[in-house]
Amino acid sequence: MIELTDATFATETATGRVLVDFYAPWCGVCKMLKPKLEELKSVKVCMINVDKWPKIAIEHGISNLPTLILYQDGKEQNRGTFDLLKELEGK
Questions:
Q1: DSSP label at 67?
Q2: I need a labelling partner for 13 at 20 to 30 A (CA). Which of 47, 48, 57, 90 fits?
């Protein structure tokens, strides 16, 4: 998984299908979700720590953690958490 920053977010999400995990290190559910994300093969998976990079979280309207956003060529396609993960896993 790729750890994003303010400087790399736009570049990493610009091409292809990219799933971004908006998380915080103190979030218990975020920690539980990480192993499942590491297993995904159908998309590029990236993470962004909202405590370190709050500007990106605000720009994307993140109000709950964890939040997963699926991008296609830089445009948001879907948003969710476990429901989106199940969809990507094909379950």
A1: E
A2: 90
- Average pLDDT for residues 3-30, to the nearest whole number? 97
Residue 39 CB partners (closer than 8 Å, separation 6+): 89
Range of the domain at 22: 2-89
* Residue of 30, 45, 56, 69 with catalytic role: 30
Contact 64, 70 (CB under 8 A): no
Q: What pTM, to 2 d.p., does this model score?
A: 0.94
Q: Which of 8, 17, 24, 27 is catalytic?
A: 27
Distance between CA atoms of residues 19 and 43, nearest Å: 6
Query: Is 46 part of the annotated catalytic residue set?
Result: no
Asked if residue 91 has pLDDT above 60, the reply is no
Domains: count for the chain: 1
